[in-house]
Design brief:
The chain contains 13 helices and twelve strands. With about 375 residues, the chain is an alpha/beta fold. It has a six-stranded mixed β-sheet, sandwiched between helices.
């Protein structure tokens, strides 16, 4: 059995004969019961809007620059689209600059954004510490920065200085992903985790998933695959083919920090003779872009996702900027965790809390 510390440092998949486990009798009846209850709550679609209903009226004439880690990341792109839509509703202008997924490209994109002297800048899906010089320049110029998945926790950040960071709670997303595997497998699974260890947020999430799975003795972690998101298209099929060869029918579940891994895994799973409806049964611990919903709804190599409410988060970022421009504090809102499957998505290609557009429009007076 591979020690947890060694596993955390793996640079690609590593097998562990017994997998991570906890002490005690076989199975995990108490953990299983809690997991099933949590998943049942998270799969509900009828929760009312619990976000902000009061705030400042729209400040006119603002310009926002959204700096994207890479627009090939569906989550980053989906949040950007939400920002565009909300900016139109409030009467602002938006420009998107794509960092291309490389450190140099992201630094250049943020440098360009600062040079444009916009009203505000979105840090879209990358670690602000990797652009410390540009962040310092924006801070010195008095340009508010709002992160999307930029740091580990939602809310304001002092170092780096962000007015707020918009994301679901990574602890909730990781926990419900692990709960889904435990609940669906009745506590008996051979699991693989896909992550991008170059992104601190993603690495933290995958470590939390690993710990969540380890709560159940008979959920064995077969491999921990570190595949950078920009390389997912080329590397994931190769790694999946290798996993199929190594583990065969032992591999029954997968959790990925981003749904896009399963788009890239599908051809290799198909070539390996696996059915689209599984196993392995795959859940994406984040994003929930339209292509993920299509795979889920058509039962093609993805069974579930824990979707970020990408459109709502785009609207929230515009609302948070409006609060910053008005001298108000951040809203403090964090969207609830949700699990989407073919059974509860009703053919939809996204998930967002109901009522958010009307709530924000009412706040802004638009």
């Amino acid at each position: 059995m591979l020690a947890a510390g060694a596993l955390a440092g793996c640079e690609r998949g590593s097998s562990a004969g017994g997998g991570d486990s906890t002490a005690g009798p076989r199975g995990c009846p108490a953990v299983l019961a809690r997991a099933k209850a949590a998943v049942e709550r998270a799969e509900r679609n009828d929760a009312p809007w619990n976000g902000p209903t009061h705030g400042p009226r729209a400040v006119p004439g603002k310009t926002i620059v959204y700096v994207a880690q890479t627009m090939t990341n569906p989550g980053v792109a989906g949040a950007a689209q939400g920002v565009r839509e909300a900016a139109k509703a409030i009467g602002w202008r938006v420009r998107v600059i794509d960092g291309g997924g490389t450190p140099a490209g992201i630094q250049a994109a943020l440098s360009e954004a600062v040079t444009l002297k916009p009203s505000g800048i979105v840090i879209g899906g990358f670690d602000p510490k990797s652009t410390a010089r540009q962040v310092a320049q924006a801070n010195a110029a008095g340009i508010p920065l709002i992160g999307w998945h930029a740091v580990a926790s939602p809310g304001p950040s002092a170092r780096p200085r962000l007015f707020t960071n918009v994301t679901t709670r990574v602890e909730d997303t990781a926990r419900i992903s692990a709960d889904w595997v435990i609940a669906r497998s009745n506590g008996r699974a051979g699991a693989v985790i896909f992550t991008d260890a170059s992104i601190p947020f993603a690495r933290h999430k995958s470590e939390l998933i690993r710990k969540g799975l380890a709560r159940c003795r008979d959920v064995r972690l077969l491999a921990y695959e570190n595949i950078p998101i920009p390389d997912a298209g080329s590397r994931t099929p190769q790694e999946v083919s290798s996993l199929l060869s190594r583990f065969r029918d032992e591999w029954t579940y997968s959790v990925a920090i981003n749904d896009l891994y399963f788009a890239d895994a599908a051809p290799a799973l198909r070539a390996g003779g696996r059915r689209g409806s599984g196993p392995p049964f795959n859940i994406g611990a984040g994003d929930g872009d339209p292509s993920a919903f299509q795979r889920i709804n058509h039962r093609q190599y993805q069974a579930a996702t824990v979707p970020e409410p990408l459109s709502q988060q785009g609207w929230q970022m515009i609302d948070e900027f409006n609060r910053a421009f008005s001298g108000r504090a951040p809203s403090g809102y964090t969207a609830p965790v949700h699990v989407s499957t073919a059974a509860n998505s009703a053919g939809a290609t996204s998930w967002n809390p109901p009522g958010y557009r009307a709530a924000y429009r009412k706040i802004w007076g638009s």
